[in-house]
Design goal:
- The complex is a heterodimer.
- Chain A contains 7 helices and 13 strands.
- Chain A is of the alpha+beta class.
- Chain A folds into 2 domains: 75 residues, Ubiquitin-like (UB roll) (Roll), CATH 3.10.20; 145 residues, Alpha-Beta Plaits.
- In chain A, the strands form 4 sheets. A 5-stranded mixed β-sheet of chain A has the order 2-1-5-3-4, sandwiched between helices. Chain A has a 3-stranded antiparallel β-sheet with strand order 6-7-10.
- The longest helix of chain A is centred in the first third of the chain and has 17 residues.
- In chain B, strand 11 and strand 12 form a beta hairpin.
- Classes of the chains: A alpha+beta, B alpha/beta.
- Chains A and B meet through helix 2 and strand 8 of A and helix 5, helix 21, helix 22 and helix 23 of B.
Chain lengths: 314, 631
């Protein structure tokens, strides 16, 4: 669901980086930052999901608050004094990005990579926690130096529709929300385990085809790191043929039923390689069902040739 | 539950029976499973939300019966309560006491605490010994028996859970230094006077004879507004660690609309803390009485006790107390003759430090993973089931009884201006007589240690406030143990643990274990804490192996600490670096003998600390002003 609809009757004025901003009551600090033209990094936030404020990369400094506050979920209040680029904010954002970089494969998370560069995150700092001079495992720890623990999981390929590469999973909860209360209400996946060992799982890690999964693909659509990936994209990447810059996006209406879901067909080399729906589309909020998401194979079927009606020749 | 998908796995007959038995004896759970009229369909989300709070009791029943949460058992629980199996699995894998793989044995499991105090007392050889005798052993975090370390808790397989030390008779020491006159506040005086017994003194009759029930009578006589006024006038602050003014909390919930709740937070899991266990074992009816007072004052119909799963005796006595309180009319449709309805349900945790955080406790109790919620909104407006909720620690609740017994003025006669009343301190480690001590706020640390028989050997460091607290050195013996003085000194009382280490202790080993504790107990929800606690532990381990930190390592530890403290969701992350950073300042991570390191670091640190203390003092200032508005 979307966050509570802002009450447009009442306006709230607050200060962001010293500039006064007026937004409707009920909006979040994040929305106010956007309104003020201040760009904010987000990972676990999406316009079509309930904010869970777990990644903490959007934190801002709120005057009077002991700790930083998550911009994505904190509603605005009149008179708030917000800093989005203070030393404390930059430090925490940098550390969050650095932590993720030290624990996960972020090679397919271009937005996170951009922000990591912006804040100067250096995940290599943890490579040799015992090292004095930057060389791995040198003087201080010697051979006793510890490799930083990483999320290490084999790719799960259990069907033709999508794959799960949890070494890329930053545990943003988006897929769980999309599978559950925010969109599909299927509840096939949840967070299991605790702490650094927490993972997205079906019950007992049951294979997807045997689980409650209905293959709507909404989890894949919201994944920010490529941990969940359509099989088409995965296979093209495997042969070095995934070229987003060469893709066109065509908006159309799903042809299966009468609901009117809008589709975005991502086309590369005249073939559909991915289907999404716009998050701001009033019918879908960005979510689809298995037919709209995956049922496009027929488009590429050989042209239909009507059987001959001339039976006399036979 | 046609809308949920389950595998074909079926429960065994005994699993089915165990789950149904657990659900039907569970207070509000009575008939929760079978009340549906055949023509009434309570489906989907609504049903899920109505029954989900029974998930934890159901999982406990499965674990005890089968030794694990089997797929068939999980399916049965999921179908019965309308919980999706993936979510139930997510909950089951959150807790230390549940396992989701089939055990290779049919044994009860002996949990052995390996946290610092028990480690000093020989936990490792004990675990080895138990293993050699053929027992199933699980080494885990603090079990709340630090005064009689090393601690063992037996999680029963088809038999009740128990603590061996409970069987071998009373060996816990209670000391109170404010017990001189009945007019001064004291939580422990009566418990000390009557001595330990087999629980006879926890009967309603015995409790009444020693004046039990007076707080409830006073509350009925005074009315809600005057009770809150007295609690505020007494300056009572929460004893669970956060020290929030109780009167403000109660006032906020009393002013709210709609249904509200009272929760006793007995998920005491801070390493070094065992006070709540003893209070519940020795004076359970007083806790029920105070909860009833709170319920009548704020207008709650339902009270909840959330007690950690490793406290079987306290749980049993609280259950007995609830039953007796119902018989006596304190609880029920007309609670204590007030005309209001108030009853109490007890829920057991299943081994997760984080569930002592109030919002994590709500999620756990509601049948979700014990992950903290972002605050604000605060529990006083959005608590249990999203409704206004008073959450109090047992020590806080017993203090309410004392305030109603002697009045706020007499209550303020002990303690300091900023911290009125007494505090329970849990003394453990290298002191002559480990035990539970009650002393007025403001008692100097050195005096408290003397009271406990003095330090054994040469003092190296004291850990105040547990794993989430901070180390102080021998130069802190004059520190008055009040909220304001400890804040000003950059440390904390927390829930009252005082862990004492002499110079024979392997301090860097202690610190590594504390770092490991947070790594294990982080819920994993937010990035700063999930990854930060791991990196911190790795760094501390490397530093320990190398015999001391390098400059880049110091800097990195500081960077991690700042991010966890600033950007984590909850108090666990905010304090996860506190002990490590204080240890580094004191030089306890150095390889040299602890005593020398402390002395050297004391010489060196004054300058660098002044800067760090500046930040701490600012925080303390903010909190103090909050405290002032309470009185």
């Amino acid at each position: 669901m979307n966050p509570a609809e802002p009450n447009t009757q009442t306006a709230v004025t607050l200060s962001i980086d010293g500039r006064e901003v007026t937004v409707p009551e009920g909006q979040t600090i994040l929305a106010a930052c956007t309104a003020a033209g201040v760009e904010t990094p987000t990972i676990c936030w999406a316009p079509n999901l309930t904010p869970v404020n777990v990644c903490r990369v959007c934190v801002v400094e709120l005057e009077g608050s002991r700790t930083l506050v998550p911009a994505c979920s904190r509603p605005v209040e009149a008179g708030m004094q917000i800093s989005t680029d203070s030393e404390r904010v930059r430090h925490s954002r940098r550390m969050v990005l650095e932590f993720l970089g030290s624990a996960n494969d972020l090679s397919q998370a271009s937005e996170i990579a951009d922000w990591s560069r912006h804040y100067g995150a250096d995940p290599a700092r943890y490579d040799a926690p015992c090292s004095d001079d930057g060389s791995p495992g040198s003087t201080a720890g010697g051979e006793a130096g510890l490799e930083p623990e990483r999320v290490d999981e084999p790719v799960r390929i259990q069907d033709d529709l999508y794959i799960r590469a949890y070494d890329r999973c930053v545990l943003c909860y988006k897929c769980v929300e999309a599978c559950g209360d925010d969109a599909q209400h299927t509840f096939a996946i949840a967070v299991a385990g605790r702490g650094f060992d927490a993972r997205i799982r079906t019950e007992y890690d049951t294979e997807l085809p045997e689980s409650a999964c209905v293959y709507c693909g909404n989890c894949v659509a919201v994944c920010p790191t490529g941990a969940l990936q359509f099989r088409t994209e995965f296979d093209l990447r495997a042969v070095g043929e995934w070229r987003p810059d060469d893709q066109t996006v065509t908006r159309t209406v799903c042809s299966y039923c009468g609901v009117g879901c809008n589709l975005e067909l991502h086309v590369q080399d005249e073939r559909i390689v991915k289907v999404t729906s716009p998050a701001d589309h009033s019918v879908t909020n960005g979510h689809l069902c298995i037919k709209g998401r995956f049922g496009w194979e027929y488009v590429h079927a050989p042209a239909f040739e009507p059987p001959s009606t001339d039976t006399a020749e036979r | 539950m046609a809308d949920l998908h389950f595998s074909d796995a079926e429960p065994t007959a005994s699993e089915r029976q165990a789950v149904l038995a657990a659900l039907s004896v569970n207070g509000a759970g009575d008939g929760a499973v079978v009340v549906d009229h055949p023509r009434v369909v309570r489906g989907g989300t609504r049903r899920r939300k109505q029954l989900r709070h029974l998930l934890l009791p159901a999982l406990h029943a499965l674990q005890r019966e089968a030794g694990w949460i089997s797929p068939g058992g999980l399916n049965f629980v999921g179908r019965t309560l309308g919980v999706p199996p993936a979510e139930a699995y997510g909950v089951a894998t959150f807790y230390e006491m549940f396992r989701t793989d089939s055990p290779s044995h049919e044994l009860s499991v002996r949990h052995v605490c390996v946290d610092p105090i028990c480690a000093l007392a020989g936990a490792a050889p004990l675990a080895e010994h138990l293993r050699s005798q053929g027992h199933a052993v699980h080494e885990g975090p603090c079990l709340g028996q630090c005064e009689r370390a090393p601690a063992v808790f037996i999680q029963g397989r088809r038999e009740p859970d128990r603590v061996p030390a409970d069987d071998s008779g009373p060996d816990s020491l209670l000391v109170s230094v404010t017990a001189s006159t009945p007019e001064s506040p004291s939580l422990l005086r009566q418990m000390i006077e009557r001595g330990f017994d087999n629980g006879e003194s926890t009967s309603m009759e015995a409790y009444r004879q020693r004046g039990g029930g007076a707080a409830l009578d006073a509350a009925l006589r005074l009315g809600p507004d005057d009770v809150i006024a007295q609690v505020s006038a007494a300056g009572l602050s929460g004893r669970g660690g956060a020290a929030f003014p109780t009167g403000i909390k109660w006032r906020a919930v009393a002013d709210g609309n709609g249904p509200c709740h009272v929760v006793a937070n007995i998920d005491e899991s801070e390493p070094g803390t065992f006070k709540d266990r003893l209070l519940c074992e020795l004076e359970p009816l007083a806790i029920i009485e105070s909860m009833a007072v709170a319920g009548l004052v704020v207008g709650a119909q339902q009270g909840w006790i959330y007690i950690r799963g490793e406290y079987p005796l306290a749980t049993q006595r609280l259950r007995g107390a609830i039953a007796q309180a119902r018989s006596a009319g304190w609880l029920g449709d007309d609670a204590a003759g007030s005309g209001q309805q108030f009853d109490i349900e007890l829920r057991r945790g299943a081994g997760a430090y984080i569930c002592g955080e109030e919002t994590a406790l709500f999620n756990s109790l509601e049948g979700f993973r014990g992950e903290p919620r972002n605050k604000p909104p605060f529990p006083t407006t959005h608590g249990l089931f999203g409704q206004p909720t008073v959450v109090n620690n047992p020590e806080t609740l017993l203090n309410v009884n004392e305030i109603l017994r002697i009045g706020p003025e007499a209550y303020r006669s002990v303690g300091t201006e900023g911290s009125p009343g007494t505090k329970l301190f849990c003394l453990s480690g290298h002191v002559g007589r480990p035990g539970l001590y009650e002393a007025p706020f403001g008692t100097p640390l050195g005096e408290l240690l003397e009271l406990a028989g003095g330090v054994q050997g040469t003092l190296a460091a004291v850990l105040l406030g547990g794993a989430a607290g901070s180390f102080v050195g021998p130069d802190a013996l004059a520190l008055p143990l009040s909220l304001e003085d400890t804040r000003a000194a950059g440390t904390t009382l927390g829930s009252g643990p005082v862990m004492v280490f002499n110079d024979s202790a392997d301090m860097s080993g202690v610190i590594e274990r504390l770092a490991k504790f947070f790594r294990d107990e982080s819920c994993g929800q937010c990035v700063p804490c999930r990854v930060g606690t791991v990196r911190q532990h790795e760094l501390v381990t490397s530093i320990r192996r190398a015999g001391g930190p390098t400059e880049p390592q110091r800097e990195l530890l500081g960077d991690i600490a700042d991010a966890m403290g600033d950007a984590s969701i909850c108090g666990l992350g905010h304090t996860a670096a506190s002990a490590v950073m204080s240890a580094m300042r004191l030089g306890l991570l150095e390889a040299e003998p602890a005593g020398e390191a402390v002395a050297r670091a004391a010489r060196e640190r004054s300058e660098q600390e002044r800067e760090e203390m500046g930040g701490t003092a600012r925080v303390a200032q903010q909190r103090d002003s909050l405290g002032d508005s309470a009185s």
